[in-house]
Amino acid sequence: MCGITGYFGTPGASLPGRVLLQRMIGAISHRGPDEQGIHVDADAGLGHARLSIIDPAAGKQPMCNAEKSVWLTFNGEIFNYIELRRDLIARGHVFRTQSDTEVLLHLYQEKGLDCVEDLNGDFAFAVWDAPRKRLMLARDRMGVRPLYYTECEGCLFFASEVKALLEVPAIRAELDPVALNQIFTFWFPLAPRTPFKDVFELPPGHILTATPQGTRVRPYWRLDYPEANDEGAWDGRSEADIAEELRELLFDATRIRLRSDVPVGAYLSGGLDSSIITAVTRRIAPDRLRTFSVTFESREFDESKQQQEMVQALKTRHDQIQCSTADIARAFPNVIRHTERPILRTAPAPLFALSDLVHAKGFKVVLTGEGADELFAGYDIFKEAKLRRFCARQPDSYLRPLLFRRLYPYLPLLQGQSHTYLAAFFGGGGAELDDPLYSHLPRFRTTAGAKVFLSRDLRRELGDYDALAELRESLPGEFGRWHPLCQAQYLETAHLLPGYILSSQGDRMSMAHSVEGRYPFLDHRLVEFAARIPPKMKIRALREKHILRESMKDLLPKGIGNRTKQPYRAPDSQCFSGPDAPGYVDDALSRYEIEGAGYFDAGAVQKLVNKSRRKSALGTRDNMAFVGILSTQLWRRAFVDGACKVGADISPREVA
Amino acid sequence: MQDDVEALIRDFIVDNFLFRDDRDCLSDTESLLEGGLIDSTGVLELVAFLETEVGIEIADAEIVPENLDSIKSIATYTKTKLAQVAA
Fold first, then answer.
1. Residue-wise pLDDT tens digits, A614-637
2. Is A452 left (phi over 0), alpha (psi -120 to 50) or beta?
3. What are the residues of chain A with a beta carbon less than 8 Å away from any beta carbon of chain B?
4. What 3-state class would DSSP assign to B35?
5. Structure pTM?
């Protein structure tokens, strides 16, 4: 796991390519503190910051072929590299190292751009093919590893994180208002857009090729579901049969993710998914299990009871870190420096603290349960959409809307709502039923409420731009033929997962402390398998992840196996509103800074700040607005003003 | 008195849900729900305000969008309640 950078073309006269690459790598050295490497050619340059995990002695990068004509810089892991290597040797390839990097290099030489199709892994890489004068960039199917690019003065630059691109003298950070509008609707910008104007993300499952003739981006994989009424190969398969295959796939996905020359730990949230991963790991590698978790002071968020239950059941060696509201507030500017985008929740901050703990304990790799909620319909939004359709069938029913209270037992304020208000919040009959975004409309509506804070100028610039319309237009042609549950799953898996979960809560938080996350549920074989599981086996009545629970029930204590999904949440605006709030909060939200940035209405922001001080807890929309505004202002401080380069808040280890 | 109630309600909505100073952007009849101005927490904030600041008592059955979804409907509802108290 590492950081990569590079360019194709001539990077401008002010800096020699080698010096520029050195600076770009320096900006993301937290991703790979063990070693750095650079290769400069007449038409291209590649850089690499290395976190040594497989074959530490010999996996140095950028790596070249025997003829020194093809060069590779690679971030991530190819989990099936042992099998690929064996096949390549059988076909006559000769290897110098045991590394997965060299396997990728040989595979490219044999298959060219199609090499990605054989890879089972989490990766972002660049291949410079000098004889063809071609640069290839590729990113894994689910979007675990990041890759950004931009073109400037005729030269293409790429890097694992945007901060490396900002080292190019001619590239300046500027907020893209459309991206801000999208974040204040979906929680993330729609790829390839990023909050940085003219800087793009290579979308998951895509490859980019750049030659003197031009640049081309195309998908090599896409998430797909069966048609709603087509049970195809599943027809007649019993639930037990499907559960068994699911179990085998998950065991294999976990097994190959335990391949490493350094110790592997696991995050244990106390929920079903991380418990499953921990239990499976225990079966495969009983002596290697070390677990980590984050706890909260407030019972509203804390899951330490469930964590301890798993620790006892699996007898793991466990470390935990308590994250207070003050910890979140203190870490937040650094968190934003790593997310590189405004966020509407503080939830990444505790994960930032957790990876710090993992690093301090000497671990570079952790397994996590991420992905199960998307694949097996664990999130409340799936049940919510099912309930909304159920209510829409009998719009006059008094009792049906009351079921929403059962759906959100952990939201005390919802418990007091009348059935008419519940129906109004979650409503969705009539024309809405035909909207492809039906499942997500209540969430998008609530989130978009935060746009009331956008400044007059920004609104004028946005004109009648409609983020929902852009999302609708981007959906695949066959979307409308999928089962409603699959449609909702697609929106979560193809968008929220890479756009927020795997990036702002995932890669960026763990790599901030040089820790690599691995996600067995996101093995593409499992993703493709899960997509074909009939919806009724995923949500049985209102029991989410039914098939997954069935397939794993003998591995878990009953209390965990039957546990209802509790979403991972952290305290939000209250972290920044108490008497102990750090001084930067007042500054970042002051009229002076808000007006200087021009993104938000200063008077409205002041009213929100006052409200947050008056009340112990804000509602959902106000919380999102508060965190969104604060993080946008911190994003500006970190990148637009150039404060990032001062590095005042970066701990010595991150700079090293 | 009547106009005071309406002004009080408008001020509360503006300070707590709308936040913006450019008041012309919210009409008296605009739906707070549809405008994304009020969520499940907001309704309870509004009820607490009407009970403590305006001094009316609201039964659970009356917490419905017909009574509380625009400045005008809140004002009408509140005035009816105040009239009941006075009677």
1. 877 788 889 999 999 999 999 999
2. alpha
3. 411, 413-414, 416-418, 420-421, 424-425, 445-446, 448-449, 451-453, 456, 601, 603-605, 607-608, 611, 618-622
4. coil
5. 0.93
Backbone angles phi, psi at A433, to 5 degrees: -60, -25
Asked if A76 contacts A69 with a C-beta cutoff of 8 angstroms, the reply is no
Per the omega criterion (within 30 degrees of 0), is the bond before A62 cis? yes
Q: In chain B, what are the domains?
A: 2-86 (1.10.1200.10)
For residues A341 and A188, is the Cβ–Cβ distance under 8 A?
yes
Domains of chain A: 2-175+196-219 (3.60.20.10), 232-376+514-561 (3.40.50.620), 573-655 (no CATH)
**Burial (CB count within 10 angstroms: exposed 0-12, middle 13-18, buried 19+), residue B4:** exposed
Catalytic, A155? Answer: no
Residues facing A175 on adjacent strands: A196
pLDDT tens sequence across A222-280 = 999 999 877 665 767 899 999 999 999 999 999 999 988 788 899 998 889 999 999 99
- The verdict on a CB contact (< 8 Å) between B45 and A425 is no
> Which residues in chain A have their CB less than 8 angstroms from residue B41's CB?
413, 618-622
Q: Model ipTM?
A: 0.84
Partner residue opposite B39 with nearest CB, options A418, A446, A608:
A446
| DSSP character at residue A398 | S
Residue with tokens 């909050």: A195
CB-CB: which of A421, A605, A619 is closest to B65? A421
As a whole number of Å, the end-to-end CA separation of chain B is 16
How, if at all, do strands A206-211 and A134-139 pair? antiparallel
